[in-house]
């Protein structure tokens, strides 16, 4: 995968500092990449001929790693056949569960059907989406969603045999740091990040 050069560029100058030379990082780039004072990085020279000889000093930050702590719901549901239309059998999803996931902005939803015809559902309520960082849900909020899930499934003719809240951490290596930098929830206890060189 090739590098993408961003549209905004900055100019600077080289200054002497002791036996080394210094190039400052504009504050906009510092915040855009969520840099931290004292973090490690790699510096190397780069050249190309196009056809003239060109040079660049590269600053490699590493891979951006985000750890997200979030709550979710795991449920085992019986009576699955009564929850889907005849044309959709055998069940590949549960519309009542999908509707709740959409209503409460679940960031993950998985569904599996066991040999005994019971469904295992997992709903994740994180804060990282492909386009933005959304407000993380508290345990209390997820508890209320679980109660609504039980009520909606049973009202539709299904049986919730088990439903529990879980807490877990997910590692992300595909999040652009600018999404977090622009988010009002970046200082949430649910998110932490680092550059791994």
Layout: helices, strands, pairs:
Blueprint: E1 15-17, E2 20-22, H1 27-32, E3 42-49, E4 53-60, E5 63-78, H2 95-103, E6 108-113, E7 119-125, H3 139-155, E8 159-172, H4 177-181, E9 191-196
Antiparallel strand pairs: 1-2, 3-4, 5-7, 5-8, 5-9, 6-7
List the main descriptive attributes of the protein structure presented here:
19% helix, alpha+beta, two-stranded antiparallel ribbon, Alpha-Beta Plaits, elongated, 2 domains, 5-stranded antiparallel β-sheet, 197 residues
CATH class of the largest domain: Alpha Beta
Number of domains: 2
Overall form: elongated
Q: What is the CA-atom radius of gyration, in angstroms?
A: 24 Å
CATH architecture label name of the largest domain: 2-Layer Sandwich
Structural class by secondary-structure content: alpha+beta
Briefly note the CATH topology name of the largest domain.
Alpha-Beta Plaits
What is the H/E string? EEHEEEHEEHEHE
Total beta strand runs = 9
Runs with pLDDT <50, length 5+?
A: none
> Mean pLDDT, rounded to whole units?
91
